[in-house]
Amino acid sequence: xxxxxxxxxxxxxxxxxxxxxxxxxxxxxxxxxxxxxxxxxxxxxxxxxxxxxxxxxxxxxxxxxxxxxxx
Amino acid sequence: xxxxxxxxxxxxxxxxxxxxxxxxxxxxxxxxxxxxxxxxxxxxxxxxxxxxxxxxxxxxxxxxxxxxxxxxxxxxxxxxxxxxxxxxxxxxxxxxxxxxxxxxxxxxxxxxxxxxxxxxxxxxxxxxxxxxxxxxxxxxxxxxxxxxxxxxxxxxxxxxxxxxxxxxxxxxxxxxxxxxxxxxxxxxxxxx
Lengths: 71, 192
Description:
The structure holds 2 protein chains of 2 kinds. By secondary structure, chain A is mainly alpha-helical. Chain A contains 4 helices and no strands. Chain A has helices at residues 3-14, 20-32, 34-54, 60-70. By secondary structure, chain B is mainly α. The termini of chain B are far apart. The A-B interface holds A 7, 11, 15-17, 38-39, 41-43, 45-47, 49-59, 62-63, 65-67, 69-71 and B 3, 8, 11, 14-15, 18-19, 22-23, 26-27, 32, 36, 39-40, 43-44, 47, 92-94, 104-105, 109, 112, 114-115, 117-118, 121, 132-133, 135-137, 139, 141-142, 160-161, 164, 167-168.
């Protein structure tokens, strides 16, 4: 696997959508390529940032209201 | 009206996915009151049509599908937003920052405010926003996201790809505007 192939698969790797063969090939490449490893870390961090930033809990009062409506 | 045990059990299980529905509704409507209305209506519809839910399948995806279909029914009526994405081309934030001499994680990601990330997500057209919500925020697989959205997996992948490019472009623009990086117009980038 070359660096372009790796970059093309990084999103799917971060999304856990590669098959086991593809995962192994990509992990082997990352182990030997600091640049791609850094790119992977960046993509993973970006995805976590989106998740954590958009995370929020349902307001407790609304949760209770809904529970009562549905019960 | 007397509640049957089956209906009660269904409602209890459905409510375990409330946070997912609320988060999705909030990011789609961008308004907490509208989000609550949407979620409430979605749950009432889910209860009414619970017989159509197949036991053992992904209830979270099923519920999200109900909620987003209700959202789109309302959205079609209002047409307040554009549904198209700007063509940012192949914008890869990591490459852009590296080309400008920045350390992408330390110099940029660590300095982005959560509120700006939310703003970037909420600025995406709804069709692209919802796929980011499902895959990036809720951690759904492409297959489950496709089921929730009623589209092929390929459509999920292409929308996600374009949405992420737009998201990265928005975050880059914010980083330049706020001085986190100085952009590629000849200025030096900050050295940490």
